Amino acid sequence: MNTDRRRTNAPSAGTAALVFARTVKEPGYLQSLRPSRTREPDELRRIFLQTNLIPSATGSAYYEIPLPRSPTTSTLIPSTSTLKILASVQGPKPLPRSAPFSPTLLLTTTVKFAPFATRHRRGYIRDSVERDLGVHVESALRGVIIGERWPKSGVDVVLTILEADEDGWWGDGNAGKGDGSGWGLLNVLAGCITVASAAIADAGIDCVDLVAGGVAAMVKKGEGKEGEVVKVLDPSPTDHKDIVAACAVGYLAGRDEITEMWMKGNVGAASDELVEGAIYASLGNLGVMKEVLLETLKSKIRAAGQEDVDQTKGSPPGDVEMTG
Amino acid sequence: MAPITTAAVNLSPAELSFLRSSLSQTPPIRLDHTKGPRDFRSMRAEYDVITSANGSARIALEDGTEALVGVKAEVEQTRQSIFGQQNLHTEGADERMLLEQDDKVEEEGKGQNSWVEMSVEIPGFRDDDALPVFLASMLTESLLASGELKDRLYINRRFHWKLYIDILLLSPPLSYPLALLSMTTHLALLTTRLPALISEKDEDPQFNDDWDAAVPLYPKDTEKPTGAKVMDKPPVIILAMAVGPNVIFDPSKEELAVADSVLAIAYTGSKGSTTGARLVSIRTIDPPSHLTPPGVPNSMNSATGGTVPTSSADALTQREMLANSGVWTPPRGGMKRGLVSQVTKMVVEAGGVGEEVINALQAIEIG
């Protein structure tokens, strides 16, 4: 054998990763660690939203579903997942001279997962899932923005997902799930719509209404084929073993209209029920968004008032605060 | 910042306004006035056009849009996950019992999403442009939704079929090609056949080399063995658009340019004899009407005796007051909630649009 004996070589064939002995020895043990939904079926997860945090952008917002304070567990398998999205809006700004004439505002939406956002590392080049999400968010926003007021201009909405919702529980392994195209994406989309809408409102771009995202799902309760299917709002994919179908919407509460809908799975005849559920979930997010925008506006007015007072006093022009 | 090129319809604001008002009449008058709101454009379809593929189909619409789909299957080794091995281990004890059971039971839930691979080629678009990516993900998602197709690809614990579905749009995308592509894929999958397996259980798979003995991927209702599970038909995606109170199916490119909202609905035939028609996926599509140029009313145009607004604020107010004057303004907002359920009902109901399309495509295959 002509092997290199001076170095410690890797094994010639592939090896399997180590598995904790107890999960292999006791077949039921792994399943006993499975988390279950502690919220009511119509109870949403708490969200955190803040606007106006990137000074160089026209508008920006940050959205987070924080990790609930969970009781101490004896396992390393995380039982919940979080969602963190940062949105920034650049523009409206004039199109480059080389671009053809556009009678309306050109909206470009870029959705990018951070490389560390999901279980599998994402590269720096956008893959098809991210492009698809970008199309969804764009269609949610395009119906809301009054584009004809900005001819010959463009606006960029950049969404960075710092941490994405899981597609399933870690203990289930990767069989057909870990590729990042599962149920977690719907939560990500709903979050993206909410945060992008908040950022656009923060940027002061004319809209017909605030659009908010929401998710509802049909999940199978109990084991076996004859499990009862129930509707839950804002599903956390780690909590449910069998998600049958799910739906994310972008909803305009003031006009009772849907600008974006993404429903997938074995919907059956439950489509109306799913849409209804997703709309209820989006109303929850809308409430938070309105509060936050109002708060930002108040603080902006207060700051402007302060500035006026400073100017009348003739304070030395030291730090000039640039507002855009 | 690339402007969307597909949607570019060269219609003036006056033409758009005319088209919209004729489409929102009751009954609507479509661009092709011989068609009702639920009529599809006529098409020519054929199947088994590619001899080297397991299944193939070609559909050409009357406006010149043409799509070709080839389905190829390859045997691939299944990667065993650590948890899969563990299952294998614990099942060892009741192996005998398991063998006695029907194969069908064993197949269930074994399939993986990655066993189906789909690619969409549209001339003039790069692979990573928004349109092909969106089309591919909608088609894949609706195909995999029920989970029956991927279970069908299971051979044994170590091997499975890998299904490659390659979709080619032969002409430039003259209208939104989603419905056409999905119908062609449906026809190709209906006629796809896999070589018959002659090896047993966990042996290395061996196949019957007689192509006539090959089994269809989607077993037909008429020749299914007794007791076998009835499988769904592959899904078909139906495009519907809303103009005012009217819902119009299979819109042409010009009609899309005045749509309030567009919905793509993926529908599979009802399961067996029960009339539980099923939806597998719904997506809204951003209508190109949002990008159309707004018209300038005579009252704001000095060339026609109007007065030019003095300030931009003044222009905005005048513009907002035009809402129902017939001067073209791009539609705003989305789809009313009631309209969404109305459209889905029109597709799903017995004798609805979905059933019609699936039956029509099935008729091509039989006759």
From TrEMBL, chain A:
One GO CC annotation = nuclear exosome (RNase complex)
- Exoribonuclease phosphorolytic domain location is 43-205
- Show the Gene3D superfamilies listed in the entry: GHMP Kinase, N-terminal domain
Assigned keywords, A-Z: Cytoplasm, Exosome, Nucleus, RNA-binding, rRNA processing
As for subcellular location, the record says: Cytoplasm; Nucleus
Which InterPro entries is this protein grouped with?
Answer: ExoRNase_PH_dom1 (IPR001247), PNPase/RNase_PH_dom_sf (IPR027408), Ribosomal_Su5_D2-typ_SF (IPR020568), RNase_PH (IPR050080)
GO molecular function annotation: RNA binding
Q: Where is this region: Disordered?
A: 304-324
Q: Could you list the residue ranges forming a coiled coil in this record?
A: none
Give me any GO biological process, just one: U4 snRNA 3'-end processing
Q: Which domain of life is it from?
A: Eukaryota
Keyword Nucleus on this protein? yes
Q: Record's family?
A: Belongs to the RNase PH family.
The molecule here is called Exoribonuclease family protein
Organism name: Sporormia fimetaria CBS 119925
TrEMBL record, chain B:
- What biological-process terms (Gene Ontology) are attached? exonucleolytic trimming to generate mature 3'-end of 5.8S rRNA from tricistronic rRNA transcript (SSU-rRNA, 5.8S rRNA, LSU-rRNA); nuclear mRNA surveillance; nuclear polyadenylation-dependent rRNA catabolic process; rRNA catabolic process; TRAMP-dependent tRNA surveillance pathway; U1 snRNA 3'-end processing; U4 snRNA 3'-end processing; U5 snRNA 3'-end processing
The cross-references to PANTHER family, in alphabetical order and at most eight, read: EXOSOME COMPLEX COMPONENT RRP42, EXOSOME COMPLEX EXONUCLEASE RIBOSOMAL RNA PROCESSING PROTEIN
List localization entries: Cytoplasm; Nucleus, Nucleolus
Here the segments flagged for biased composition (Polar residues) are 298-311
According to the record, the signal peptide region is: none
Q: What is its main location?
A: cytoplasm
Question: Family, per the entry?
Answer: Belongs to the RNase PH family.
Q: One GO molecular function term? A: mRNA 3'-UTR AU-rich region binding
> What protein does this entry describe?
Ribosomal RNA-processing protein 42
Q: Where is this region: Disordered?
A: 285-311
Highest taxon of the lineage = Eukaryota
Q: Which GO terms describe its cellular component?
A: cytoplasmic exosome (RNase complex); nuclear exosome (RNase complex); nucleolus
